[in-house]
Amino acid sequence: MEEIIEPRNLRGFRDSLPETESRKLDIQEKLTRVFRSFGFVPIDTPAIEYAEILLGKGGGETDKQVYRFLDHGQRDVALRFDLTVPFARFMAAHYHELPLPFKRYHMAKVWRGENTQRGRYREFIQIDFDIVAVDSVSSDFEIMTVMAESMRALGIRAFHVHFSHRHLFNELLQTMRLDGQFLPVLRIIDKLKKIGAEQVQSQLDELAGEKHAREILDFITAGASNRGTLEKLASRLSDDSPAIARLRSICRCIEDCGLEQELFLDPSITRGLDYYTGVVFETFLDRAPDIGSVCSGGRYNDLASLYTKEQLPGVGASIGLDRLVSALEDLGVAGDQKTAPEILIVLLDEALVGACHKLAAALRSSGLSAEIYPSEKKIPVQLKYAEKKGIPLAIFYGEDEMEKDIYNLRDLQQRQNHDGLSFPQLLERISELLSRSGKM
Amino acid sequence: MEEIIEPRNLRGFRDSLPETESRKLDIQEKLTRVFRSFGFVPIDTPAIEYAEILLGKGGGETDKQVYRFLDHGQRDVALRFDLTVPFARFMAAHYHELPLPFKRYHMAKVWRGENTQRGRYREFIQIDFDIVAVDSVSSDFEIMTVMAESMRALGIRAFHVHFSHRHLFNELLQTMRLDGQFLPVLRIIDKLKKIGAEQVQSQLDELAGEKHAREILDFITAGASNRGTLEKLASRLSDDSPAIARLRSICRCIEDCGLEQELFLDPSITRGLDYYTGVVFETFLDRAPDIGSVCSGGRYNDLASLYTKEQLPGVGASIGLDRLVSALEDLGVAGDQKTAPEILIVLLDEALVGACHKLAAALRSSGLSAEIYPSEKKIPVQLKYAEKKGIPLAIFYGEDEMEKDIYNLRDLQQRQNHDGLSFPQLLERISELLSRSGKM
Question: What is the pLDDT of residues A105-154, one digit of tens each?
């Protein structure tokens, strides 16, 4: 007897079983439809790249998490840890052959050797969409509408896209002569949703003094309406503030499109990364606030400066598929995925295998999904299989039925038989039963 | 000035640009529909696994090609090089929680450090589908019908699934008392399509003598019909041959379902791998014979014997997506992929950004795809963008039109204007123009 190898996964890696995998694919399909309806096109990049490309200047926290190794040719390579860096390299390599501005979406796996004790996984799917080679109100606003439309397409009604502009703070701190404290202030503000206003105030007190701390906290508190918030912000900054001008134009688009209920100007949004230079956004689900932002992004000045002298400003956002799946499950809108076909043809007689396959093909031509139990076993075994797989209907088609050209249909959920049907009657009855059980 | 990093890919790795990526996604979508209509369900497994799991007993040619390295925890890990080994591990880990027999499909990237001089790539997408935990005529036949249905779904009309049974040779060589020469004979036969009958005969001469060589060559030559081939094979083997019995049942299914033109009994098919133990199949495109088999597989005795004592016989096949894309391109059925949206809204005035987005949203609610040029540039620049992206229609909607509540539509392919349309007229005209150009 040979030794058995334990069929285990690496820590932080999971198999995706049919139900979960169907959910993930369903989400990707719905988002694909949204992206395409806005004119975004799909791309893909290799999972493995030169480490030099992926790590760039390097030195960040991410570096330690990157899967990096020497390949067969002793090249220093790594697995991608996000979809932004490969996109930057992609744009530097291909911008001359693409229609510019370029709108792409990319759904793919990324890998990070994160600490699994915090419930993190080391392999996950990211969904990114960006508009590059343009800096405009329209593209800022478009990314926000794609975010909103994506949530709607997934059946999420109660959500808010919170947005702000990264330069508001630069301008505010300038008026306070606190320009030098920009990043520390930002880092404190960024913790607002986690640690609360009181904690933020006390940390700001230490950094900037009590008066400024109060002013900053007031500044980042959103008003009842976008317009109100905007005017409050404007009153604190100089008349020709470019950040206010951009936000004003965006707010006007929001009003023109009647999206005030969904797109919410929230000056407390900063996004931690130095990377962003204009609008920034995060998306929260009203009924699952603890899960944090399910779709975030912003505007950047120059996507691919590491790889090309061509300046490529852009705006984009990213969805973490795994977090989104959890959120949908929590909200009960993940849906009962159609992992199962609609019909099981019970195999009553090995001699009828061909006839059963012919019947299955006829059902499929009518747009149904059907499978045949693959060997002649006792009927209870076959029906148990249907139950375990979640197949709602079974057809019994033996020699007798074949001779008389009739079909016996069983509704496995209602435990009800519909016998002696002609083929057209069979199709009709199937369609009735499926629409009744909400399967069609 | 900082130094620029050259935005290059690793040898053997490619970016997938929008047109190619759309083609790949389109194929995957069509195949998904086929698999689901037969009751196959999707799974996924991690890209990275313990090297011990992926390489098993190891020592094969594949081992040298595997991307293998130490992870952050100094674990010996590797990237998957096919979807069969991870599936075996998956089944060993999960068979008790799955409905058995289990029918899965899996579309995912695999990596092999192959010699790129032979035009091979090191990252490619495989599409596998299997039925495990059953050994039956119905499941053998089902995999063949899925192969045929997949080709049809991709618009390929002229194809043949060639099939045979791996035990035919064992039985034939037994009658010749050449059992010991099984693998060498198989290896020579396997080269038939590459080196031709004459070369095969001369190599067989050396191995088995002229008489046997002639008999073997005659044995593997298919007749005009499946029935004829079957009877010829049967006449050479013992009456109770299990291989002939299985093939006879499969041929009966083929006749019952009227698939004689597509599923072709071809005793020269052997499949190189020791792995297979029953039926084997390959799929050839009549009009692209040089490309070789685009979908191959067979029956195996025991999928997961390395990882569990549970015996899991099965049957399955695998499609190489990249090879299939080339084949479809060669055949001219790859299709003009809808990488572009249907409508570009020309941005005539920055003040109208919101109104243009509102119009785009209305078009999308009507099931159309529409984008707005993202900044106010000269009209020729905007139309040039539409042309480069392949957008067929443009809408001009300025202040004047907004006031009069009308829309000017331009057919960019016919260079024809349709001006002064109301919104319902606009929708109607768009639908006419798109159906005329075959875009809907």
Answer: 999 999 999 888 777 899 999 999 999 999 999 999 999 999 999 999 99
Distance from the Cα of B39 to chain A's closest Cα (Å) equals 5
Q: What is the pLDDT of residue B440?
A: 46
Helix (H), strand (E) at residue A238? none
A113 vs B contacts (CB less than 8 Å):
71-72
Tokens of A265: 């100007």
**Residues in chain B, how many?**
440
Residues B96 and B204 in one domain: no
Same domain, A201 and A297: yes
Q: Are residues A396 and A255 in the same domain?
A: no
Start-to-end C-alpha separation, chain A: 50
Dihedral angle, C-alpha B344, B346, B351, B357, nearest 10 °: -10
Structure confidence at residue A440 as a pLDDT band (50, 70, 90): very low
Tokens of A101: 């501005």
Q: Do B134 and A309 touch (CB under 8 A)?
A: no
Interface pTM, i.e. ipTM:
0.93
Closest by CA to B113, choosing from B67, B48, B59, is B67
Residue after which a domain boundary falls, among B214, B231, B247: B247
Mutate which: A20, A24, A38, A44, vs B, most B CBs within 10 A: A44
Predicted confidence band at A378 (pLDDT cuts at 50, 70, 90)? very high
The answer to whether the beta carbons of residues B169 and B185 sit under 8 Å apart is: yes
Report the gap between the CA of B114 and the closest CA in chain A (Å).
9
Give residue A365's domain range. 343-436
Which candidate from A49, A104, A374 shows the least CB-CB separation from B136? A374
pLDDT at A85 over 50: yes
Residue B47 in contact with residue B109, Cβ under 8 Å?
Answer: yes
- Looking at residue A368, which CATH number applies to its domain? 3.40.50.800
Residues of chain A with Cβ-Cβ distance to B89 below 8 Å are 7
The answer to whether residues A162 and A71 belong to one domain is yes
* B344 min Cα distance to partner chain A (Å): 9
Q: Is residue B53 domain-shared with residue B162, that is, in the same domain?
A: yes
CB contact under 8 A, A111 and B48: yes
Residue spans of chain B under pLDDT 70: 1-2, 57-61, 273, 335-338, 438-440
Does residue A13 belong to any structural domain of this protein? no
CA distances in angstroms from B397 to B8, B166, B295, B354, listed in the order given: 42, 68, 50, 12
Which of B57, B71, B348, B356 to mutate against chain A (most A CBs within 10 Å)? Answer: B71
Q: Residue A102 above 50 pLDDT?
A: yes
Q: Are residues B216 and B232 in the same domain?
A: yes
| One domain, residues B153 and B85 | yes
- Contact yes or no for B90 and A15 at CB 8 A: yes
Which 3 state secondary structure label does DSSP give A166? Answer: coil
